[in-house]
Give the backbone structure.
Amino acid sequence: MIMTVDLGNRSYDIITERGSLHHAAEYLDLDRKVMVVTDDGVPEEYAEAVRAAAKDGHTVTVAQGEASKCFEQYQRILSEMLSLGFGRGDCVVAVGGGVCGDLAGFAAATYMRGVDFYNVPTTVLSMVDSSVGGKTAIDFRGVKNVIGAFKQPERVLIDADVLKTLPKRQISNGFAEAVKMALTFDEELFSVFETEDPMSYVDKIITRSLLIKKAVVEADETEKGLRRVLNFGHTIGHGIEAAVSPELYHGECVALGMLPMCSDKVRARLLPVLSKLKLPTRYDFDREKAFEAITHDKKGGGGFVKAIVVNEVGSFEEIKMTLDGLYGKMISYYGENK
Ligand SMILES: NC(=O)c1ccc[n+]([C@@H]2O[C@H](COP(=O)([O-])OP(=O)(O)OC[C@H]3O[C@@H](n4cnc5c(N)ncnc54)[C@H](O)[C@@H]3O)[C@@H](O)[C@H]2O)c1
């Protein structure tokens, strides 16, 4: 299936096709120097399939995990490209999850003021969310994604067969972002999570989530308005992530962050879905530390935040609330520190 993200001269196709990784050259222009960026947790054969299909392919493998979204690894990719004589007509391909995509995308955005970038996501999270939309970044001085660029890929190639090797907890982690999209835009997709085994419907979940992400990105490429809806669950979620990191994955924190931001009736439907996906619904985190991280994130807002709430499944509202009001929402669901 081909879906086009319509962004004028930055438009690109997302191809979702099982088995496509092994025919990468049919979908991506690899007839040039190609720098494949992967990590050591991604089975080697995936990156190798792309490298071997390239006319002049090379690979940089970083250590798995968020810590690789750093200057050192960014520089390492650029150094390799420079010493191998990469020019403006060459390209970078990420083969991995969101860590590889964000790091490789940022290298592609900046090498010689920008070279072509392809994303081949291999986690559920990167298939449903991070591979589309053009946000690329590295972390700096403990602040996530603080240095980056908007760099739309030339193409995204999704082969769901690679999920056969992804650990179950990582699969659920990615489903949390798809549940977020369903809650805010697509009641029918939400009911798939309620009534079906999500893994048997993973192709449909990927496609429906991408349709939502595509529509949001088309309407608001650089997050000036609508795109903020994708932050549903992320404000409190980021606070929790900062308080417990690295115990919980990002999607698990988003799951915890969505619960206080729903109406009672939506929460009554969300709780069983999260439990079915083995995502957390309660967690013992330091409320003060989480709130400190939230206020740090939101400073500059004059004591107010724009928060997304869901009162009906499949829709959302953006409301302006005080930071105290947000703290109150978190505490009303999780209670005060014990
Ligand atoms: N750019 C965006 O719009 C955007 C959106 C959301 C998240 N992100 C970023 O994405 C990152 C998280 O991405 P993620 O959840 O994909 O994590 P990740 O990239 O760290 O991948 C998770 C783990 O799975 C392993 N892995 C990947 N594919 C595999 C496969 N097919 N089989 C077996 N193991 C595999 C990796 O080695 C890693 O250990 C964060 O850095 C976050 O900031 C970016």
In short: Residues 176 and 248 are 13 Å apart (CA to CA).
